[in-house]
Amino acid sequence: MVEHRTSPHHSGPGRAAEKPHDHDACIDTAIARARALCEERSVQLTPIREKVLQIVWRSHKPVGAYQVLDELSRTHKAARPPTVYRALDFLIAEGLIHKIESLNAYLGCGEAGVAHTSQFLICRSCGTTEEIVDPKLDQALDAAAKRARFTVERKVVEIAGLCGRCAG
Amino acid sequence: MVEHRTSPHHSGPGRAAEKPHDHDACIDTAIARARALCEERSVQLTPIREKVLQIVWRSHKPVGAYQVLDELSRTHKAARPPTVYRALDFLIAEGLIHKIESLNAYLGCGEAGVAHTSQFLICRSCGTTEEIVDPKLDQALDAAAKRARFTVERKVVEIAGLCGRCAG
DNA sequence: TGGGGGGATGATACAATATAACTTTGGGGC
DNA sequence: GCCCCAAAGTTATATTGTATCATCCCCCCA
């Protein structure tokens, strides 16, 4: 169900099919960054929140809230849906994870702490979802909204299809 | 709950705050187009499907499936969730409505029968959701996907914020 | 030092969205 | 008449997400 360290997959925008991906390091980096950011912002990355962040980061596939709950329950018997949704809400508010709307699922944010708008490439075959940051695309969104006299607050861009690995 | 004929709101991409919108005519056009398209394609726009299409078209706000169910039940006592979801699935497959993923709700398609990829501007204040078709934006999406060696099958672009009317 | 406030979590219940699986209906072709 | 098939009926359940109130715990500070 969950990907572990040895599974090789691509790691960054526009750089598919390169060297294997050390996912443990990937998680560790994300957690360390999250700790630093929460420290900076004087918000609490509590044990539950950190655990949920870790669970979401265990793969590069979006994870459902109840899947998070299952995992969390193993170490935290008292966990219930609100436990998970509160943690997810916190992590989203702090920009540490994203919600993938078309899947009702959650994904670790690869750009935590950096101002950005991201887009997602969701492979329907392997489930791997890549976060990309494309300023041109983002500008095109802003321009389109502006033409319609629309004030943008939130952007959802999710592209579903086949990743290079699965199509190739 | 539902908007009726006299409610004026803007009607097309990039043309906010113009003359009142005759929504009855808007619905009628959509239904007529749907009939013609289904005829052409030899698929059945059954009474239930047409009624659901009409319900979705009653406003320019996305409508939830259970809201559709409530309305449908008034004239169709046997209606149940599968009744509605089947009709919605059919209408989506035929390109007559769209699902707004970030709201889990459904919206009439203003470009039925024309090949297009659309984007949505969702006003958080009044709920009105405008479908726009912006080829530049669409190209930017394709270009971004291509750079990541990703084969696009479906695109979800939803921008939430304030429409001109509500921001102004 | 103990009382109050607030953020986080516990706990229970439920709401909202969506699908599975099997049955029945009805119209068209043979 | 009989079969076939798409559509709709029917029942049950799965999945996703919230509301609400209680409790805990830490920090502040009078």
TrEMBL record, chains A, B:
Keyword hit for Phosphoprotein: no
Any Gene Ontology CC annotation: cytosol
Database matches in Pfam families: FUR
Needed co-factor(s): Zn(2+)
Keyword rRNA processing belongs to the record: no
Region (Disordered): 1-22
Protein name, per record: Transcriptional repressor
